[in-house]
User: Which sequence fits this backbone?
């Protein structure tokens, strides 16, 4: 398992100031031209940050939102795009989307990641010595797409496809990959299909207020879908948001709680095992 230094917790609370958003109901009084102009919103942001594993990183980030004009029921569709370069000669690019059809009948989500990202590996056990540390390089393309249909208000059921491909593996001779015969050290293509159940009553996913999100998905990777290994992955993601009176200032605040878990069975490649930290829980492996 990756050794991790988590700057967050699997279950954690964050406080952030709520941002007042214009309500669709108020738009009836606005001119038709302004309504159309507000359908698409693009927010480009230059990203600059410092992390223990990358040192300085930088790159463009963009958040794109589409709000259907004259529609107070259908939720906004969102896209995020970014490309990041780091001081350690690492690169990754991510495109994700969360789209809704009319009246929220279908919810289509997806994500595509590309990594050219040398990183440290310590082994797949629970207790790995620091001396195990090995720097390896690879190229990785990973992504998923899910389609959920509304069963009842805010509750969706559907299917998900997930895939990962790793190639150009560069390992240290005699390192931990060779000594422990790590599954997936040779890279390979993995492909799986499964089901999902999702509850989501957030009106603005990028700026949620009093709401809840929960997803459970179970993916089966099998040679029938082109996968070079057979295994399964069960994942859950729970998020709850409360609007609370201001602790400072005049505007209300948002209290957020997040819990997530990932469980596997079968012949799981090392880069698809669960790892503490990373983007989902605001941490970094060490």
Assistant:
């Amino acid at each position: 398992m990756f050794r991790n230094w988590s700057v967050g917790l699997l279950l954690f609370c964050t406080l952030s100031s709520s941002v007042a958003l214009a309500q669709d109901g108020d738009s009836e009084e606005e001119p038709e031209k302004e309504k159309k102009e507000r359908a698409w919103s693009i927010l480009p942001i230059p990203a600059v940050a410092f992390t223990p594993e990358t040192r300085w990183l930088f790159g463009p980030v963009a958040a794109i939102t589409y709000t259907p004009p004259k529609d107070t029921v259908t939720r906004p569709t969102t896209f995020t795009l970014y490309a990041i370069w780091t001081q350690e000669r690492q690169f990754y690019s991510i495109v994700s989307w969360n789209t809704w059809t009319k009246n929220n009948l279908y919810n289509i989500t997806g994500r595509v990641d590309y990594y050219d990202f040398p990183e440290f590996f310590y082994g797949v056990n629970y207790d790995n010595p620091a001396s195990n540390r090995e720097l390896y390089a690879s190229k990785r393309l990973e992504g998923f797409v899910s389609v959920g249909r509304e069963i009842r208000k805010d509750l969706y059921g559907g299917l998900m496809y997930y895939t990962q491909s790793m190639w150009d593996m560069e390992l240290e001779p005699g390192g931990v990959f060779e000594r422990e015969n790590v599954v997936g050290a040779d890279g390979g293509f993995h492909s799986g299909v499964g089901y999902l159940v999702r509850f989501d009553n957030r009106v603005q996913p990028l700026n949620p207020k009093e709401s809840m999100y929960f997803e459970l998905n179970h993916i089966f990777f099998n040679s029938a879908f082109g996968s070079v290994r057979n295994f399964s992955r069960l994942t859950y993601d729970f998020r709850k948001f409360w609007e609370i009176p201001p602790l400072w200032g005049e505007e209300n605040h948002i209290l957020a709680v997040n819990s997530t878990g990932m469980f596997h069975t079968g012949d799981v490649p090392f880069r698809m095992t669960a790892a503490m930290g990373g983007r989902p829980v605001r941490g970094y492996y060490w």
Notes: The domain at 4-285 is CATH 2.40.160 (Porin).
